[in-house]
Each structure stands twice: as C-alpha cells, then as structure tokens.
Amino acid sequence: MAHAAANHAHHGHDHAHDHEHEHESLKTFGFWIFLITDCILFGSLFATYMVLHGNTNGGPTPEELFKMPGVIAETFILLTSSFTSGVAVLGLHKGNMKQLIGGLIVTVILGAAFIGLEVSEFITMVNHEGATISTSAFLSSFFVLVGTHGLHVSVGLIWMIGLIFQLRRRGITAVTKRKVEVISLYWHFLDVVWIFVFTVVYLMGVM
Fold first, then answer.
1. pLDDT tens across 62-75, in order?
2. Which of 4, 69, 78, 190 has a 20 to 30 A CA-CA distance from 87?
3. Which long-range contacts (CB under 8 A, 24 or more apart) does 61-69 make?
4. Nearest of 102, 100, 105, 78 to residue 89 by alpha carbon
C-alpha cells in the first residue's frame, strides 16, 4: 500500500515536471514566432531605407552626417555585450550563479553604453546638423530603422534587469533557465541586426 502511494506520488511529480517542461517549451516556441515577425519588421525597414536613402531633399547626406568613430565604438560595445551574454549562458549551464549574474550585469552596462552613444549621436544630428526625422525621406527612414533597433535594445535591457532580480530571488529554475536562454537569443538577434545596420546604413552611407 505504502509502495503504491509512493509510486503514485512519484508519477505525479513526473507528470508535473513534464507539464512544466512542456509549458516552457511552448513559451520558447512562442518566442521564436516573435523573432520571425521581428525579422519581417526589420526586413521591411531595411527595404524602405534602401529605397529612400538617396532622397535627401537638399538636406544633409549620409557622408556629411555619419561620424564613423562613434559608430565603430557602438558596434564594438554591442559585439562585446553579445560575448558577455554568452558567458552568462555558460554560467547558467554550469550552475554557476556568480558567472550567470555577473555576465548579465556586464551585458546590461554595455547595452546601456550603446544606447547612450546612439542617443548622443541623434542629439548631435538634430541640434548641430538640423537633421530631424522630417528633414528628408532619407532621414525619416534612417531614424525609424536605427531608432527601432535602439528601442529593441532598451526593451532587452529592462527585461535583463528584471531577470537579474528574479534570479537573485529564485535561483536557477526551469522558468529562469528558459528566460536566460531566450534573452540571450534575443540579444544575439539584435547584434546580427546591428551588423546589417552598420553595413547597409553606415558603411554604404560613407562610401
């Protein structure tokens, strides 16, 4: 009788564990769908930029506006943050809480530095060059594309900070494990998008 009860309890635990695992897998799948729609969004913004980037309406051109040292610094910072988010995931798989949280904190600091540089770039363009979103079709498409990427990075930062607090409170669970893996994927995706921004917008703009 006791053996049967223990067996039943064990099966119940297994069932709950399977259900939790299924639930987390479903959420990860949902995230992949979100990433695909995001790819379509960025694809549309890139296509719009490619069509409109020559329409400067007598306003400043890409060569006049883009300051490459700042953009290269932004790129270096974001690529480094991709590496540190990878370090955090390694910590997760080793069960090393210090490495996990440390990696996430450094990623947040680098991401915030990236946003700081981008905001100062935008402010310089508007205040010193008079280049606003309504100056020309080129600038409209530029601000929307680069601004949308910046917005995604900002969302990622808020998400990561929330996750750091959650990890400190709950430790590594099936839920926090999924969240770390998902945010890392999201962050790598933003890095790939930025490489396209860097190449298509900035490099091709100054050439």
1. 999 999 999 999 99
2. 69
3. 61/138, 62/138, 62/142, 62/201, 62/202, 62/205, 62/206, 63/205, 63/206, 64/129, 65/125, 65/129, 65/131, 65/205, 66/202, 66/205, 66/206, 67/121, 67/124, 68/202, 68/206
4. 100
